[in-house]
Each structure stands twice: as C-alpha cells, then as structure tokens.
Amino acid sequence: MPDRIAPIVFLVVALAALATHGCGKSHQDDRARQLAARVRTEFLHAWNNYERYACGHDALRPLSKTAHDWYGQSLLMTPVDALDTLILMHLDAEAERARLLIVTDLSFDRDIYVKNFEITIRVLGGLLSSYQLTGDKRLLSLAEDLGNRLRLRQSSHWPDTRSGNESGRNRHAPVGVWHFE
Questions:
Q1: Residue 66: which H helix or E strand, with range?
Q2: What's the rounded Cα separation, in Å, for the pair 158 and 155?
Q3: Which residue in 21, 40, 148, 149 is deepest, having the highest Cβ count within 10 Å?
Q4: How many whole angstroms separate alpha carbon 62 and alpha carbon 89?
C-alpha cells in the first residue's frame, strides 16, 4: 500500500502545482490584456489629436496643439511612422486614412536637408514595414524612391558639397545630413 501512496501523492502535488500555475497565468493574461487596452486607448488619443490639429504635417506640438514640420516642409513623418502600428492595433479606419494621405501627398521631390538617421528609421523604415503589412505597391515605390535618394547621397561621400541645386543656393550639408533634390 505505501508503494501506491507515493505515486498518488506525487500526482496530487503535480496537479496542484499545475493548477496554481495556471491560475497565475490567467491573472497575468488578464493584466496583459488590460495593459494592452490602455496602450491602445492612449495611442488612439494621440493619433486622433494628430489628425485634429496637425494632419498633413510631420508632428503635433501637444501643448500648443499646433503642427510642426521638421524640415520646413512636411515629409508626413508621423503618419508614415505610425501606419504599421495603426495596422497592428487593428485601427483599420485610421490606418486607411493614414495610408491614403501618404500615397496621395508624400513626395521626396524637394530641395531640403534632412537628418539621415531620422529619415532612415522613421520614413524609410515606416514605408517598408507598412508595405509589408499592406502589400500596397505605392508604399514600396515611395520607399524605393527615398532609398535611391539616400543611396545616391551616400555614394557621393558626404558631406554633400554640390552647388547649383534647384533653389540656386550653394550650401554644404554637415555630416549626418542629406540633401534631397
């Protein structure tokens, strides 16, 4: 009889341990869902305010509720940077509006200086990830256009010392800054 009790006790202890772990996991899952819902709510709050006060610009200045363009002209940095997040959060209507804004209004035919790191991670990265999630070839086309412009700048051994750009100004771009033409 004692030989039978040990396996039974072991089985009861193992089941109790599994049941206790399962209850804790359920509590952790509930907490994770609550946290995810709060993050989604805050993201949507920020996005709605961007659309209300700064749509078509790079960013929203939240205290003054005014638009800001990092380079004097909008590169739609917030919508491009946020589109993949909108998609992953299943904010479908917001994602569709952002995608349409990007494919309709974004152009890199500008005579401006930009920061390489910021443009690469936010704009190029945003366009590529959004293309991967949507399959919208217009996003890929924009990414290819930007990538080619960045590649051309890199192959010219920055800083960019060319003159006679479209504005007729002779400027020198500091290291880490690229000039679109």
A1: strand 66-68
A2: 8
A3: 149
A4: 22
Residue 33: the pLDDT is 94
Q: How far apart are the first and last CA of the chain?
A: 88
Confidence of residue 37 (pLDDT cuts 50, 70, 90): very high
**C-alpha distances in angstroms, 40 versus 89, 123, 133?**
7, 22, 19
Q: How is residue 157 written in tokens?
A: 């051994």
Distance CA 96, CA 99 (A): 5
Quick one: how far is CA 6 from the chain centroid?
57
Give the torsion through C-alpha atoms of 85, 140, 135, 104, to 10 deg. 80
Distance CA(34)–CA(49), nearest Å, equals 23
- Backbone Cα Rg of the chain: 25
pTM of the shown model = 0.72
Q: Which ranges constitute the DSSP H helices of the chain? A: 2-54, 77-88, 92-105, 116-118, 125-134, 137-155
Of 11 and 27, the structure prediction assigns the larger pLDDT to 27
Report whether 102 contacts 63 (CB < 8 A). Answer: no
